[in-house]
Amino acid sequence: MPNIEHSYYPHAGRVVILGGGESGVGAAILAKDKGFEVFVSDMALLAEQFKATLTQEAIAFEEGQHTEAEILNADLIIKSPGIPETAPLMQQLRKTSIPVISEIEFAAQYTDATLCCITGSNGKSTTTMLTYEIFRHAGLNVGVAGNIGQSFALQVAREQRDVYVLELSSFMLDDMHHFRAHIAILLNITPDHLDRYNYDMNAYVDSKFRIIQNQQTEDYFIYCADDEEITKGLARHQSPAMSLPFTQVDTALAQGAYIDEQKNLIINIPKREPFTMNIEELSLQGKHNVYNNSAAGLAAKAQQLRNSVMKESMQSYVNIAHRLEHVACIGGVTYINDSKATNVNSVWYALESFSPDIVLIMGGVDKGNDYDMLRDLVKSKVKAIICIGKHNGRIHEAFESDTDVIVNSASMGDAVEIASHIAKKGDTVLLSPACASFDWFKNYEDRGDQFKEAVMAL
To answer: Which of the listed residues 257, 284, 316 is the one where a domain comes to its end?
Structure first.
């Protein structure tokens, strides 16, 4: 039965799930297990693994179309976060009284687990996996889900966890209304996906702040006090939860996380033993990763985990694939896969993490990027830019006076080949696209995998 505290939607009748990917199939299985009549509909063709699962579970589905008669008679709609509000079907659904929610919102009704939820424009996956590893190392019965790993709904359906660490995108948060994060982490807010928010930055900020909706006094709100958009957003969005800011400005916090003069990360939460660790001991280096460790450390301390466990985890953690991932060192040239960097701010963090000279591979589907914030780093660190994807004109315009070489490529293999001729011993070839991937590639993972294959073929 659903958790009464979280029970706001029909718990019988017909559920229609829009989108037959990881989250949609997981939601379908949970809905079936809870006694709903379930129908899955996807405008695209389903991956074979998901078709096989739905068939095995005897769940009805369609692919390559949305049959309105099968959808508009639903008691509840669970929507893929990838479907925009501008889609004709969504326009129709909004005229009805049928609730439209996310997989996360649906699954949360059926678990009493502690929910540690992480959002932000950058660093979500790294912080999510770091937090998960700290929790796991401490012996907690923990699952990881959301934008990463196996779907939350499937885990709720088939496993029993005490804690979930959830990576949440703004698109997921938009379809969450009664969901409650017991630990909410807001890492940063920089322009991203503005095409989904009518190019209104405040609307995007408001979407990110949905992570604190429905919090209660016994919960925790962890956020970056150095982020301008978060600071402005706090004036409009407040939580009754305990506030735990983190900062790298020269400020000692009695409640939160900060860096002292000796470069120690200090974490203080009332009625908890303080945590201290020199940032040079962190396995993930760079200013952005100090922020990520601060957030994960605050979450761990909120869970009353031991300092020794936290330190061991933060010293040994290995970064996720496609995020500043070391691929190889060939002829003295280091190749780095940062395919997950789909916005300008992520590229800024990547460039900040490496010394000159960098051969930067970037480009793809431009989401209205403002490249101004990269100019100083490009001038000081980047010796060449190699463009991939279709939307390269704005990259040429932005950086033609800031670096000596900007060239287009015909494929990822071509881009890596060009980079290998430009780079010299001691240089870094960095794939950090700043753009979406779906012009040349299936997704950012496919883009990163093709980069790694091309590097290993040199």
So the answer is: 316
Please report whether residue 3 resides in a domain. Answer: no
For residues 375 and 129, give the distance between their C-alpha atoms in angstroms, rounded to a whole number.
Answer: 31
Whether residue 121 is found in the same domain as residue 248: yes
* Cα-based distances in Å from 220 to 91, 255, 256, 374, 426: 36, 12, 11, 34, 44
303, 135 Cβ separation under 8 angstroms: yes
**In a shared domain, residues 91 and 169:** no
Q: Give strand ranges (E) for 179-279.
A: 183-186, 220-224, 242-246, 256-259, 264-268, 275-278
User: Could you tell me how far CA 455 lies from the centroid of its own chain?
Assistant: 26
Same domain, 161 and 306: yes
Last residue within a domain, chosen from 316, 340, 359: 316
Cα–Cα nearest to 341, from 448, 211, 196? 448
Question: Residues within the annotated binding site for ATP?
Answer: 120-126
At 246, is the secondary structure helix, strand, or coil?
strand
State the CATH number of the domain containing residue 215: 3.40.1190.10
Q: In what side-by-side order are the strands of the sheet with 325-330?
A: 325-330, 333-337, 428-431, 358-362, 382-387, 405-408
Find the length of the chain: 458
- The domain in which residue 300 lies consists of 105-316
Q: What is the mean pLDDT of each run of 10 residues along the chain (458 residues)?
A: 55 92 94 96 91 96 94 94 86 92 94 96 88 96 90 93 94 90 93 67 88 95 95 93 93 93 95 93 84 96 96 88 86 93 85 88 85 90 94 90 93 96 95 90 94 96
In a shared domain, residues 276 and 288:
yes
**108 touches 6 (CB < 8 A):** yes
Its pTM stands at 0.76
Binding-site residue set? 120-126
Residue with tokens 């993490």: 353
**Looking at the domain assignment, is residue 5 inside a domain?**
no
* Cα distance between residue 342 and residue 215, in whole Å: 30
Same domain membership, residue 139 and residue 221: yes
How buried is residue 445: exposed, middle or buried, by Cβ count under 10 Å (0-12/13-18/19+)? middle
For 291-323, b/e burial (b = at least 16 CB within 10 A) is: bbbbbbbbbbbbbebebebbbebbeebebeebb
Q: Do residues 75 and 128 share a domain?
A: no
* Residue 132 maps to a domain: yes
- Report d(CA 420, CA 43) in Å as an integer: 40
Measured between alpha carbons, how far is 409 from 362 in angstroms, rounded to an integer?
A: 10
Exposed/middle/buried for residue 16 (C-beta within 10 Å: 0-12, 13-18, 19+)? buried
Is 2 domain-assigned? no
